[in-house]
Amino acid sequence: MVNAELLEQDGILVIKPEAPLAEEDFKSIGSLVDPYIEKHGKLNGILIQAENFPGWQNFASFVSHIKFIHDHHKTVAKIAAVSDSKFLEIAPNIASHFVKAEVKHFPAGEYEAAMEWLKA
Q: Where are the membrane-spanning stretches (predicted)?
């Protein structure tokens, strides 16, 4: 399960995974951001806040995640991962090979710094 909130004024999506990611999570997030992207042409940023990366529910969930990235990466300017998870710490290095967005890791206590970076 994932909690997602679109901060429309800033064009920033805040994602907080709370359990292994499911296919339905990516459908839900898409239905939240797709109308905004259609209206504004892009999303200024995505902030992923997770104490630990919960992984995926199953292989189909992983595939849904990859499809979501493929369908949206050209319309997102920046991605901030706020976490002490080792996986999310190295994710920006991996993601930089697959997405157009600028990706940056922030330690768990630096939510505000990450938000400022996304807004800049």
A: none
In tens, the pLDDT along 13-58 reads 999 999 999 999 999 999 999 999 999 999 999 999 998 888 899 9
97 pLDDT higher than 90: no
Residue by residue, what is the 3-state secondary structure of the chain?
A: CEEEEEECCCCEEEEEECCCECHHHHHHHHHHHHHHHHHHCCEEEEEEECCCCCCECCHHHHHHHHHHHHHHHHHEEEEEEECCCHHHHHHHHHHCCCCCCEEEEECCCCHHHHHHHHHC
User: Is 112 in a helix, a strand, or coil?
Assistant: helix
pLDDT by residue (tens digit) across 15-25?
A: 999 999 999 99
Domain ranges of the chain: 2-119
